[in-house]
Amino acid sequence: MECGIFHSTYEKDMALRHTPIEKARLALVILFLLIFPFVADNYWLNLANTIGVVAIGAIGLNILTGFTGQISLGQGAFLAVGAYVAALMSIHWGAPMWLTIPSGAIATALIGAIFGIPSLRLKGLYLAIATLAAQEIIIWVITHWDAVTGGVDALNTKNYLWFGGENHYFSEFQFYWIIMGLAVVVTLLTVNIFRTRIGRAFIAIRDQDIAAEVMGIDLFRYKMLAFATSSFFVGIAGALIAHWRQIVTWERFTIEVSIFYLAVIIIGGLGSVSGSIYGAIFMVMLPAILNNIGKALSGVIPTMDILIPFVQQAVFGLVIILFLVFEPEGIAKMWKNIRDYFRLWPFSY
Amino acid sequence: MDKFLQLTLTGLTSGAVYALVALGFVLIYKSSDVINFAQGEFLLIGAYLAYFFLGQLGVHWSIGVILTLILAAAMGVVIERLVLRPLIGEPIISVIMVTIGLASLLKAIVGGIWGTNPQIFPAFIPKQEVHIVNAVVTADKLWAIVIALIFLVIFTLFFRYNKEGVAMRAVADDQQAALSVGISVQKIFAWAWSIAAITAAVAGIIVANVLEVSPNLSGVGLHVFPVVILGGLDSIPGALIGAAIIGLLEAYAGGYVGDGSLAQVISYIVLVIILMIRPYGLFGKEIIERV
After folding, report:
1. Model ipTM?
2. How close does chain A come to B290, measured CA to CA in Å?
3. How are the residues of chain B apportioned to helix, strand and coil, as percentages rounded to the nearest 5?
4. pLDDT tens track of chain B, all 291 residues?
5. Nearest residue in chain B measured CA to CA from A118
6. Among all residues of chain B, which has the CA nearest to that of A66?
């Protein structure tokens, strides 16, 4: 809640953006998103698409972990479910993308809800360990169920526009519009979920589950719903990965991926939709920037090429630690502090 | 029967390593309620430090092991002071993530210094074959079991008779009450982390001796979760028995069921079952919060 702003109607109070500056900022972001693909080269488009996919997955995870307070270490496996469903549907049935992506999302929502059942008995740490087990078990099933998933071999996803059509080639430019379009839809949906009874129930469960139950929130139903909603968006991200990369292997969905997504929402800001997006931008750009710095330094330090992956890994760990120690509410909070400072400047009290 | 005995010995050996890693894990959880996802990386650091002293510097093994353990203890104290202490009172996800970040950092440091290729460890624990009835086992594996048992005895005595050990139990029970009778909770946390790092380093040296030194050793860290959940997160004998059960299960699943690939997930399946029916484990305190 920002100070100095008064609302005289309920509609104004419920508005997502209150001040003219906020609206102007939003317009600028939209303008940037529309112009960006026309000026960027393939390298930047690829990065932007990665950010888009990660943002969708991170928003999904944030619904579960940030807003409902259920820690999940199974994100990687849920992404895998979405990706494999989409890939297998396109390979075996020739299903078009507009069908495979929602199907992947729905399948992931179902699996997510099933693995959400332990959350009824387990909280916090124990739930985290249960989802860790879910991660390992799902990936094991994928790598050993050869008849369906092709085991450890990679699947080559086909991108059809219609049943019986031809495998369509999409450029990074074309995928930019698909991914960004979906990312915008997911963002709008999520922001609005938290203006409804369901979203507020999620937040109530996070803050005090017993109090929430006393207030008449059916814990079983809403926890399942949180797992399903979250996994639905994660499934979209997984299916997008399948179609965009066109190669699906289990190695892309290991426990490291689960950790990466948790890092994204922690650094971006738990319980913040915009935070998920900031986190996605930060965590995708960081290794890319380190990579470029490393390449620039390789003339000076000859072993830099070998060291780059370790530097990336070390910085990844270090960034998580530093954020948790110094700004546990992530980039979203930092950005808010900066905004507040300048909005109220020079009388910031 | 031979196969059974052989598998039993294999299972007990890996169980011994799990037990040592799990002991440190339980110790940290018991005293500070922190789940340490970096326990596997502690093992990795221990193994590589020992490799550095024994393999690269070529010092005598007794000196090398002592130096490794001292450095591991120092690392534990430093990590507790710099990383964990600012997070006291933070939500559980922050504590989990900070140890995950730590794991990533430690792994990267090891990889950056020693590379990713496996290195041969100058084994100092004798490796000659020992015949037990019809099974053959190398002596270092038996030593692993013996060392794990020795540590169990030391820990049991430590918690019963040593002043710091009793203080640790007091802190685990109620931090405020412990503070009010003059126990320094901060000192206890430092103790817990350094002892955890030492046991993990011992496990690392044993694994390095039995196998080789490679970055994959840190995978043991994740296998410890089924062990500690099965035994009970706050129980030291539980860690040992849980480790033996998980080690044996993995060995039998690998030896008897199909192509043996079940061994990779059997422990996680047990983990899910235990979490569903008895989340506090076999020997844990039954205080888990239910929803």
Report:
1. 0.85
2. 6
3. 75, 5, 20
4. 678 888 888 888 888 888 888 888 888 887 777 888 888 899 999 999 998 988 888 888 888 889 999 999 999 999 989 888 888 778 888 888 899 999 999 999 998 888 888 888 887 777 777 777 777 778 888 888 888 888 888 888 888 888 888 888 888 777 788 889 988 888 888 888 998 899 889 888 888 888 888 888 888 888 888 898 888 887 888 888 899 999 999 889 888 887 777 888 888 888 888 888 887 888 877 665 554
5. B276
6. B93
Strand B129-132 with B135-138, pairing: antiparallel
Measure the CA–CA gap between A103 and A338, rounded to whole angstroms. Answer: 41
| B129–chain A nearest CA distance, Å | 35
The answer, for A342 touching chain B at a CB cutoff of 8 Å, is no
Q: Hey, what domains does chain B have and what are their CATH numbers?
A: 2-114+140-277 (1.10.3470)
Give domain A40-343's CATH architecture. Answer: Orthogonal Bundle (1.10)
Q: Testing the interface with A: which of B32, B44, B82, B105 to mutate, by most A Cβ within 10 A?
A: B105
A219: nearest CB among B112, B115, B291: B291
Taking each helix axis as running N to C, give the angle between helix A219-245 and helix A197-207, from 0 to 180 degrees, rounded to the nearest 10.
110
Residues of A in contact with B222 (CB under 8 A): 132, 136, 255
Using an 8 Å CB-CB cutoff, list chain A residues near B107.
313, 317
Across the interface, whether the CB atoms of B96 and A137 are under 8 A apart is answered no
Q: % helix / strand / coil in chain A, to the nearest 5?
A: 75, 0, 25
Whether the CB-CB separation of A314 and B103 falls below 8 Å is answered with no
Can you give the pTM of this predicted structure? Answer: 0.90
Neighbours of B85 (CB within 10 A): 14
Give chain A positions within 8 Å (CB) of B86.
325
- Quote the minimal CA–CA distance from A216 to chain B in Å: 15
